[in-house]
């Protein structure tokens, strides 16, 4: 049997089933195929968003490790990047929420780009961690 490519280019039913299965097993979340959308030009979309929500000189907090292209598109658009370094504990990435909170207090920070490293020991983030990070950012918006 020939090897079938599992790249992101092939968006067949198997691709969608694998995503649905993963979320069911890992997060106990029931997804529907029509809820899943793949963006072929994700970095171009991020550039458009960066330009829409900020101006030259503003800052973005980005979790790290991260694809090298993401910080570059910020700096190429004259925005400053502040890295929120993830720590490895028990072979999993962990956030230091105190550091993140301090970074987001900076009035020049206009966005928090939450990146999920899929490389070992990267794990897709649990919903509680994402919710906590979002709550910190919402509080920043409300207070500043």
UniProtKB/TrEMBL annotation:
InterPro entries: Class-II_PLP-Dep_Aminotrans, PyrdxlP-dep_Trfase, PyrdxlP-dep_Trfase_major. Keywords: Pyridoxal phosphate. Gene3D superfamilies: Type I PLP-dependent aspartate aminotransferase-like (Major domain). SUPFAM superfamilies: PLP-dependent transferases. Its cofactor is pyridoxal 5'-phosphate. This is Uncharacterized protein.
